[in-house]
Amino acid sequence: MPDNADITLLLDAARDGDRGALDNVLATLYQELHSMARRQLAGQYGQTLDATALVHEAYLKLIGRREARFDDRAHFFAYAASAMRSVVVDYARQRMAQKRGGDLHRVTDLPEDIEGGLRLDDDMLALDVALTRLAAVDQRLAHVVELRYFGGLSEIEIAELLQRSERSIRRDWQKARLYLLASLKAD
Questions:
Q1: Could you tell me how many helices (H) and strands (E) the chain has, helices first?
Q2: To 10 degrees, the CA torsion angle through 27, 128, 180, 177?
Q3: Nearest Cα to Cα of residue 85 among 113, 122, 124
């Protein structure tokens, strides 16, 4: 597996418009992306969205955006987490619309961890709305939530990716979680 310097070179080439470089980055990091997707969809048996489909849909979003630029590995994973968020939220919207008209209900809890995976239901849609509000207030906190919830990364992994201390990430996670809970309860 290439090291971070090799991936950064490929990301530089992808940023300059080299589609082959982007394909190479994705192929190189595919297992990590697939692991992220598997963690997110754990416990979602009987669903048509599986980890492979989630990675492929996220890939289509990655290559479909000409403005997508990746400065480094962390930026790539942040963008991948955002793409996965978009796919999962779209899937939940479609599923809820088919099930019962897509009505949202009040969410009263935001789990500390998501070992069991994300629920693809109206809770997911309410969380997406609250996360969009958080991003308008503090993009850094929203970024941590996106990496944690939609990227399935641990605090340690996020700290490593963002080159920040684990303690700092933990504080950001707690602040974001409090904001999201308050936002979800206010709806």
A1: 8, 0
A2: -20
A3: 124
Would you tell me how many other CB atoms lie within 10 Å of the CB of residue 32? 17
DSSP secondary structure, 8-32, as one string: HHHHHHHHTT-HHHHHHHHHHHHHH
Q: How confident is the model at residue 121 (pLDDT cuts 50, 70, 90)?
A: low
The CA distance from 121 to 118, in Å, is 9
pLDDT at 91: 82
**Residues with Cβ within 8 Å of residue 91, at least 6 apart in sequence:** 49, 120
Rounded to whole angstroms, what are the CA distances from 163 to 105, 110, 157? 37, 26, 10
Token pair of 177, please?
């979680």
Q: How far apart are CA 31 and CA 128, in angstroms?
A: 26
Q: Is the dihedral of CA 17, 23, 24, 25 positive or negative?
A: positive
Query: How far is it, in rounded angstroms, from Cα 21 to Cα 30?
Result: 14
89, 81, 101, 78: which is closest to 11 by C-alpha? 78
Please tell me whether residue 146 adopts helix, strand or coil conformation: helix
Q: What is the pLDDT of residue 104?
A: 47
Range name among 50-54, 61-65, 181-185 with the lowest pLDDT average: 61-65
Length of the chain: 187
Across 25-29, 74-78, 159-163, which has the greatest mean pLDDT? Answer: 159-163
